Amino acid sequence: MCHPTAMPEASRARPGGQQRGDDTRLRILQTALRVFASEGYEGASTRVLAHRANVKLPALQYYFGNKEGLYRAVIDHISATVEQRIAPVTEQIRARLVEGEISRAQVLELLCRMLDAFVALVTDQTSPDWESRALFFARAEIEPQAALDTLHRRVTRQIVEPCAVLIGQLTGQPPDAEQTLLRTVAVIGQVTVFCNRKAHQALGWQQLDDTRIHAIQALVREHTRAIFRVVKGAIR
Fold first, then answer.
1. Where are the alpha helices (DSSP H) in the chain?
2. Measured on CA atoms in the order 94, 84, 76, 159, is the torsion positive or negative?
3. Is 126 exposed, middle or buried (0-12, 13-18, 19+ CB in 10 A)?
4. What 3-state class would DSSP assign to 5?
């Protein structure tokens, strides 16, 4: 039988070890995001990833199995960040549409709220991995990997699909109609351009503060409202 004082000490040791394990896993993830963003998938070796995360190679293998497993975990990490920031607005939109009667002005306001949230997400430079995430997305466009399909599906579910539903309501078209999707991609594109540092440089911005983020949100709202003053359809 264990000594009476041994069990509390052991129970305290396990959470501490788990916390260290969680910290190590997160450090590897954050490092991998930076490395994949700067070097690309093919250019990032497991030895480099382990070295930059300040862990031994077996630790990387223990937590993620191999480079592809780590890459997928990075994608899950990014997807979870997007969902955490956007999900409250997405749920608000879905709940409001389920209620039934909704005016054109209310539909347009819901669309603007989604775009506000998306602007806040892509311009949030307070996140330590903001630049790496932006570069990771840029690399994904020129170095497609099968694992990225998961990221695209989750972003589509959280952002593209709700916007398409609202734009379909505004134009009187089904949300999956090609014309609706074209308009949706064009409207969302107003936001994604601000992921690019070249856009910031063209504006002479070294960093994005709240005033500039609010200015982007106001401009996107203005453009979106102007679009749907011209493009009209019945609210079904």
1. 6-43, 46-52, 57-64, 67-98, 104-122, 130-142, 148-155, 161-171, 178-192, 197-203, 210-230
2. positive
3. exposed
4. coil
Q: Which tens digits make up the pLDDT trace of 93-117?
A: 989 988 878 899 999 999 999 999 9
Cα 162 to chain centroid distance, Å, stands at 15
**The length of the chain, given as a count of residues:** 236
Query: How far apart are the C-alpha atoms of 149 and 141, rounded to whole Å?
Result: 12
Domain 6-230: CATH superfamily is: Tetracycline Repressor, domain 2 (1.10.357.10)
In sequence order, the 6+-apart residues with CB closer than 8 A to the CB of 10 are none
Residue 85 has pLDDT above 90, yes or no: no
Could you give phi then psi for residue 138, rounded to 5 degrees? -65, -45
For position 149, what pLDDT does the model report? 81
Q: Is the pLDDT of residue 175 over 70?
A: yes
Give the pLDDT confidence score for residue 17 in this predicted structure: 59
Residue ranges per structural domain of the chain: 6-230
The label of the residue with tokens 């250019």 reads 43
DSSP 8-class letter at 172: T
The CA distance from 159 to 141, in Å, is: 18
Residue 9 has pLDDT above 50, yes or no: no
Is 93 in contact with 164 (CB distance < 8 Å)? no
Identify the weakest region by mean pLDDT among 50-59, 74-83, 132-141, 150-159: 132-141
CA distance 112 to 183: 14
In this predicted model, which residue has the larger pLDDT, 233 or 200? 200
Instruction: Tell me how far apart the alpha carbons of residues 136 and 78 are, in angstroms, rounded to a whole number.
Output: 10
